[in-house]
Design brief:
- The protein has 162 residues and is an alpha+beta fold.
- It contains five helices and eleven strands, in the order αβββββαβββββααβα.
- The N terminus is likely disordered.
């Protein structure tokens, strides 16, 4: 109980909210972190928009469902991406999944660390495990994405339906 209270207070201090997955356990637990300040697509990618660049990756919820990531296929810098269209793939011990871009724009940077260490997506999906950085061509597309509370609710409902 003390550990759960410590985890809860730590999550609050870090401004994390939790997507719970009650079908894993009779007790409600936090299995996936959702960060405030990011935008989320219903295909489980996140976007962090800072200035003229948006960083994109897959969510903690997505990596948790994928399992251990063993390979990442990403495009080259300079390639254009389109909202809701695939730009790469993640291969895990369970499956290979396409990665969709939550916004449109031009790729200005690719996380080259992922080719050597794809497990960064599992260990640090919101920091070291980012995938691409994009110069948005239509920044208003960000408005159609979910905030942290909406995404948490979306994940809870999605998990409950499985």
């Amino acid at each position: 109980m003390a550990l759960r209270m410590w985890a809860s207070s730590t999550a609050n201090a870090l401004k994390l909210s939790c997507a719970t997955t009650p079908h894993f356990s009779p007790l409600s637990r936090c299995f996936s972190s959702v960060l405030d300040g990011l935008k989320y697509a219903n295909s489980h990618e996140w976007v962090k928009h800072e200035g003229s660049v948006a960083t994109i990756g897959i969510t903690d919820h997505a990596q948790d469902h994928l399992g251990e990531v063993v390979f990442v296929d990403l495009p080259e810098t300079g390639v254009s991406v389109t909202k809701a269209t695939g730009f790469g793939a993640v291969e895990s011990v369970k499956a290979t999944s396409d990665i969709n871009s939550p916004i449109s724009g031009e790729i200005v940077e690719v996380n080259s660390k992922l080719s050597e260490t794809p497990g960064l997506i599992n260990s640090s999906p919101y920091e070291d495990g980012w995938m691409i950085k994009v110069k948005p061509s239509n920044p208003s597309e960000l408005e159609s994405l979910m905030g942290s509370k909406e995404y948490t609710k979306f994940c809870e409902e999605e998990d409950a339906s499985h």
